[in-house]
Automatic annotation (TrEMBL), chain A:
SUPFAM superfamilies: E set domains. This is Sulfur compound chelating protein SoxZ. The gene is soxZ. Pfam families: SoxZ. Residues 10-102 form the Sulphur oxidation protein SoxZ domain.
Length: 109, 131
């Protein structure tokens, strides 16, 4: 079970219609690869964020499958287009079944 | 003694889900041919002083999906990006782990359904001091 998992995202608060905005996301997570051994020589079981999705008003921006090769505190950067005022919903799925969500409102003028 | 079978089973479980790079490519393309060349860009450093966090980015205009593999890692999968209607570009950046010097590969499924591939060699100098 990963502890102190905290999502952070950078999204502008306002945008013009159909503007391309760059979104940066980071979530604090050890991304235990399942390859490491502890000091007694036992393999530390895999425990990673295995999927990330970004949606705007229910429409998909990007859906990403993450593997153990993604670094600790997975960082993702991508571009979205915002056709109207609404909300981004970011969701991270953990191997342990936990789901972490973050919602960001964007006003489109 | 009673604990031994559990330990063995745990090891089996850890070893089981090892898909090879070829398996992952076949799953991604459905067996279709993959061309080398234009249509997908992979940006990665030539030299990474720390294999634990190597910045990479992929870009494939018009693509619906991009698969990223690290061929010499213990498990070759890195990420698979699926772009939706509100993706302003079919591009993404992240940070990855590389166990050693190797080729990082990106394969994109383009708008016409064809697949293109590119690779970039990254030298990993763990514990190095820039030399």
């Amino acid at each position: 079970m990963a502890e102190n998992v905290k999502p952070r995202v950078r999204v502008p608060k306002t945008a013009s219609r159909d503007e391309v905005i760059t979104i940066k996301t980071l979530i604090s997570h050890p991304m235990e690869s399942g390859q490491r051994k502890d000091k007694d020589g036992n393999t530390v079981p895999r425990s990673i964020i295995n999927r990330f999705t970004a949606e705007f008003n229910g429409q998909l921006v990007v859906d990403t499958r993450l593997e153990p090769a993604i670094s600790t505190n997975p960082y993702l950067e991508f571009d979205a287009r915002v056709p109207e005022t609404g909300e981004f919903k970011f969701t991270w799925y953990d191997d342990d079944g936990s789901v972490y969500e973050n919602v960001q409102k964007v006003d489109v003028s | 003694l009673g604990l031994l079978p559990i330990a063995v089973r745990a090891q089996d479980a850890a070893a089981a889900p090892a898909m090879t790079a070829d398996d992952m490519i076949a799953e991604f393309t459905g067996g279709a041919a993959v061309a080398d060349g234009d249509g997908v860009t992979l940006t990665a450093p030539e030299i990474a002083e720390n294999g634990n966090t190597v910045p990479i980015s992929v870009d494939a205009p018009g693509a619906s999906e991009i698969l990223v593999l690290a061929l010499e890692n213990p498990t070759p999968g890195v990420a698979r990006f699926t772009f939706g209607p509100l993706a302003a570009s079919q591009a993404a950046a992240t940070r990855i782990r590389l166990a050693k010097t190797q080729d990082v590969v990106a394969i994109a499924k383009l708008a016409d359904g064809s697949f293109v591939r590119t690779a970039s060699n990254v030298k990993v100098t763990i514990g190095g001091c820039g030399g």
